[in-house]
Amino acid sequence: MDENVIMAISASAMRAQRLRMDVIAANLANAETTRGADGGPYRRRAVVFKAEPVAATFEGELQARLAGRDGPLGVRVSAVVEDRGEPRLVYDPGHPDANADGYVAMPNVNVLSEMVDLMNASRAFEANVTAVNAAKRLMEAALEISGR
Amino acid sequence: MRIMDAVMEGLARALDLREERQRVLTQNIANADTPGYRARELDFRQALEAAFGEGSGTDKGPGAPIVNDPDGILREDGNTVDLDRQMVKLSTNAGSYRVLSRILARKFDMVRMAIEESRR
């Protein structure tokens, strides 16, 4: 077991959180988009996180199995899924995308909950940065053993 | 005559365990938002009992087994990681590692001193 594995775990999580932030940014940017890629209003997207073995070298895998424990688990975005929630109907007869009754189908994006999600993602990202720094301090401490 | 005495070997083993725990805690933090992920923890108690059970203090027996964190709180998405608690554990664990590595460095200083003094 070495610190590189610790770094790889944190790196995978930072990558995943960054992708999550990208998706949230897209949701916020398209909160009012009435013409999405499929013609209808934009649909909110969400990431799906999955725990995944990280740095699965043969040696690492063998060591873990021999010791009877699971190998190091990082995290990966396994899918970006569309929220199948119903679009919000807003009464705006002057809008070019309004239906016969004067209602416009707006994206099912709740700006408030997206902002909360963004804060959570950013906090999770920072937690992983802290873990990387802690791993760095461990390496420095290990170097000091033979130092001088 | 051995360079590494029993204390030093014990320290080296403790450093290994601290590093392994750092890995497990980092993994918990990385998976703080993964649905269904169970927080893990090293079972030091079981490792201690195993070490004493075998009789010899310097015997490099199996490391501490990894178990589900008994302090975990189950959230509705099946995840049991408490991020704040994990951060506290991470920093105390890194602190313990530093302490152990300092002590080991001092032990090596003493060995070096013994070698150098004999040359006079």
Describe what you observe in this structure.
The complex is a heterodimer of chains A (148) and B (120). Chain A has 148 residues and is an alpha+beta fold. Chain A contains three helices and four strands. Chain A has helices spanning 3-29, 58-66, 111-146, and strands at residues 45-53, 73-82, 88-91, 103-106. In chain A, α1 runs antiparallel to α3 (111-146). Chain A is elongated. The relative contact order of chain A is 0.21. Chain B has helices at residues 6-30, 44-53, 83-117; strands spanning 40-42, 66-68. In chain B, strands 1-2 form a two-stranded antiparallel sheet. Chain B contains three helices and two strands, in the order αβαβα. Chain B is mostly helical and 120 residues long. Chain B is elongated. Chains A and B meet through α1, β1, β2 and α3 of A and α1 and α3 of B.
Task: Produce the secondary structure layout.
The complex is a heterodimer of chains A (about 150) and B (about 120).
Chain A: H1 3-29, E1 45-53, H2 58-66, E2 73-82, E3 88-91, E4 103-106, H3 111-146
Antiparallel strand pairs in A: 1-2, 3-4
Helix pairs in contact in A: 1-3
Chain B: H1 6-30, E1 40-42, H2 44-53, E2 66-68, H3 83-117
Antiparallel strand pairs in B: 1-2
Helix pairs in contact in B: 1-3
